[in-house]
Amino acid sequence: MIVRAITGIIFVAVMVLGILHPYSLIVLFAFITGAALWEYTGLVNNIKGVKINRFISTIAGVYFFLSTAGLRLAPGEGFIVFIPYVLTIMYLFVAELYLKNENPVNSWAYTMLGQLYIALPFSLINILAFQQNEAGQTTFDFLLPLSVFIFLWTNDTGAYVSGSLFGRHKLFPRISPGKSWEGSIGGGILVLVVAGFIGYFANMGATPHILDIPAWTGLGLVVVIFGTWGDLVESLFKRTLGIKDSGKILPGHGGMLDRFDSSLMAIPAAVVYLYTLTLIQG
Question: Which residues span the membrane (predicted)?
């Protein structure tokens, strides 16, 4: 418990401090993307008949993240920044023609799953962090990406407390027997309260935030729902592989996928939510 608590405090401190500055955010999530992909590729390479290029798959995912960041910081560059990534993916497909793996289709499938499941969601954190103002200039909004993790941490805490006290009805017993409807509802209510507070303080200054209080509570609800699904998706992944934890890089907390499972669904959902608001308001 002590090790878990110390690791949790250090983890939260690193995440918060890393998100507060644009370049530290890019470095932090580039590392997270690479570490998560390295962990993922090591896990799936233990599946019979699957053999994917661990090094190139990880480098490709990190490059995709950095390309997305570069496109947000310098939108004039256009799609050309993704050309090396496209070539790398093409190489990973063509290489199977010469490697004589037992099941190349499975290898292709798990290679692309890593890019879609890990590299793409983390890359979208750049969409939340770097916005374009009316003058076409790039602005940095640390509050949006930080709030996603605040909501996820709040939801975990609220779900644990309310689930321990009132949990009776299982949420998804086939995949995650420990989760209850009572815990999920309690966590969600706490997130809505926190989202309201964030919305209030974010709009206190002379320049209001792009989200008002109702929009902040909507974002909180989206993060809760999709964060819960993200947790369940990773649980299904681990059950498929027959493992308890995805790794041991974080003492007391398991691996990178264990720690960021909720965010892999919550980040894309938050981006879709913000773009949906933009379309409605437009």
Answer: 7-32, 52-71, 78-95, 107-130, 142-161, 181-201, 213-230, 262-280
Question: Taking a C-beta distance cutoff of 8 angstroms, is the pair 108, 96 a contact?
Answer: yes
Residue by residue, what is the 3-state secondary structure of 15-68?
HHHHHCCHHHHHHHHHHHHHHHHHHHHHHHCCCCCCCCCHHHHHHHHHHHHHHH
DSSP, res 198: H
Residues whose CB is less than 8 angstroms from the CB of residue 100 and which lie 6 or more positions away in sequence, other chains included: none
- Dump the DSSP string for 98-133: HH--S-HHHHHHHHHHHIIIIIHHHHTHHHHHEEE-
Measured between alpha carbons, how far is 81 from 62 in angstroms, rounded to an integer?
13
**10-residue stretch averages of pLDDT, the chain, 282 residues long:** 81 95 97 97 93 96 96 83 95 92 92 97 97 80 96 94 90 88 94 96 87 96 97 94 86 86 97 89 61
Q: Is 261 helix (H, G, I), strand (E, B) or coil?
A: coil
Instruction: Please provide the distance, in angstroms rounded to a whole number, between the alpha carbons at the two ends of the chain.
Output: 50
The one-letter amino acid at 82? F
Q: Yes or no: say if 40 and 94 are a contact pair by the CB < 8 Å rule.
A: no
Q: For residue 244, give the 3-state DSSP assignment.
A: coil
Determine the longest span between alpha carbons in the chain, in angstroms: 64
Residue spans per domain, the chain: 1-135, 141-281
Nearest-5° Cα angle at 52, 49 to 53:
150
> In the numeric block, which tokens belong to residue 167?
């949990």
Question: Are 228 and 184 within 8 A, CB to CB?
Answer: yes
